[in-house]
Automatic annotation (TrEMBL):
It catalyses: L-aspartate + ATP = 4-phospho-L-aspartate + ADP. Residues 332-394 form the CASTOR ACT domain. Keywords: Amino-acid biosynthesis, ATP-binding, Diaminopimelate biosynthesis, Kinase, Lysine biosynthesis, Nucleotide-binding, Transferase. It comes from Clostridium cadaveris. Its EC number is 2.7.2.4. PROSITE patterns: ASPARTOKINASE (PS00324). Substrate binds at residues 52, 79. ATP binds at residues 7-10, 178-179, 189, 214-215. Residues 2-235 form the Aspartate/glutamate/uridylate kinase domain. GO terms for cellular component: cytosol. This is Aspartokinase. Signal peptide: none annotated. The keyword Zinc-finger does not apply.
Length: 399
């Protein structure tokens, strides 16, 4: 049996017309001799009747936060509705199919409601359905605790469900269908010149997704990589080849960077030793933040100051700590972290200097930088982010 995972995102299953395209993709997989396993997200986006955010708005946030188990039961409904509706459309087109909840598909999780960890995937049920020539239509984003309660796996985790099943079923390929022709060199909403990347490594896409590109969930990439199953990002509405993600990527490409992405809502925090004389907490700031679960990045430590960035949502907590410990610091809010990603930068000298120069020549202030083997980060004012992305794209990514 050649198993193929086909995951369809919220916009792909939102309307009858779009679901007709989904049916075509499933039909064509069957004609090519594959046994498809379909994974679906909830239908549509916020505002659409059965979208996850719409369901979430039915309960108030106090209730949600103190009853995560109940909230997960509600959140699971979006995918359940979607899987039955999709199964109906397949049936209408002569494809026998069977909607399955995460639990019925064998996805067993711990009791960490809202962000559950998967403990085990028991493929027995799916395999027996496939052996009968029936297409399982599995709800993404959800699992079941060992004692039978619905759990969800974290925002955007339907991609992860697809990879999880792909690895457990040793699929030939995991196809993630969405509303763009593949992974692009930059977010097409901000960079008009962005173009499709044909091939890219797991590692690069992981960086891409982890650094803000919404096109695929980072855990989905990590899981597919563990199982060494090729991932392909495709458009539900077109026949474009899509982006192939595996261990090889473009191999011999001469390009320095594969793509760029960004993360908004960053706040730069700066502690100066002169402002914190005789306060020993100054030397333990990073530990104290870690103990308080405040995640920081772009960390630059100098003899006389410590600089890093945090997400806007952590600012209240940080201010509380700073006050309680009598520390002094300054904040620059409304920053955007731009990330340039590519295996090609390893060991190439002068790249950072070139980026800073081109931004400076265009009057863009670079607030901070950092780099790793595969990524270069620049912090800029959010008001400059779109311009910075376009200039960097023009400089390094011309096709
Ligand atoms: P789905 O509902 O199908 O899961 P998502 O909204 O999660 O779809 O992901 C697709 C969207 O990701 C695209 O519509 C696009 O706007 C956005 N996106 C951001 N960065 C990129 C990129 N580098 N390449 C392609 N799409 C991107
Ligand atoms: Mg998505």
């Amino acid at each position: 049996m050649k198993i193929l995972i086909q995951k369809f995102g919220g916009t792909s299953v939102a309307t009858k017309e779009r679901r007709a395209m989904v049916v075509q993709k499933v039909k064509s997989a069957k004609e090519q001799g594959f046994s498809p396993v379909v994974v679906v997200s909830a239908m549509g986006r916020k505002g659409d009747s059965y979208a996850t955010d719409t369901l979430l708005s039915l309960i108030n946030s106090d209730f949600k936060n103190s009853n995560l188990k109940a909230a997960d039961m509600l959140l699971s409904c979006g995918e359940i509705i979607s899987s039955v509706v999709m199964a109906n459309d397949l049936y209408d087109n002569g494809i026998e199919s069977c909607p399955l909840t995460g639990g019925q598909a064998g996805i067993i999780t711990d009791n960490n409601f809202n962000d559950a960890e998967v403990l085990n995937v028991d493929t027995k049920n799916i395999i027996s359905i496939l052996k009968e020539g029936v297409v399982p239509v599995v709800t993404g984003f959800q699992g079941l605790t060992e004692d039978g309660y619905f759990t969800t796996l974290g925002r955007g985790a339907s991609d992860f469900s697809a990879s999880l099943l792909g690895v457990a079923l040793k699929a030939e390929e995991i196809q993630i269908y969405t509303d763009v022709d593949g992974i692009m060199t930059a977010d097409p909403r901000l960079v008009e010149e962005a173009y499709i990347i044909d091939k890219i490594t797991y590692n690069e896409v992981f960086q891409f997704a982890d650094q803000g590109a919404k096109v695929i969930h980072p855990r989905a990439v990590e899981m597919a990589m563990k199982g060494n199953i090729p991932l392909v990002i495709k458009n539900t509405m077109t026949d474009a080849k899509g982006t192939l993600i595996d261990n090889y990527g473009t191999g011999s490409s001469k390009k320095l960077f594969t793509g760029l992405t960004y993360m908004n809502n960053r706040i730069q925090v700066r502690f100066k030793s002169d402002d914190n004389r005789n306060n020993d907490n100054y030397y333990n700031i990073l530990d104290i933040l870690a103990e308080n679960n405040i995640s920081i990045d772009l960390i630059n430590i100098f003899p006389n100051e410590q600089i890093f960035t945090i997400d806007e949502i952590c600012i209240a907590k940080l201010k509380e700590i700073v006050e309680a410990l009598n520390l002094n610091c300054t904040y620059s809010d409304r920053c955007t972290k731009v990330a340039l990603i590519g295996n090609g930068i390893k060991g190439v000298p002068g790249v950072m200097a070139k980026i800073i120069k081109v931004l400076k020549n265009n009057n863009i202030e670079v607030l901070q930088t950092s780099d790793s083997h595969t990524t270069i980060w620049c912090l800029v004012h959010s008001s400059d982010a779109k311009k910075a992305l376009n200039i960097i794209h023009d400089t390094f990514m011309v096709n």
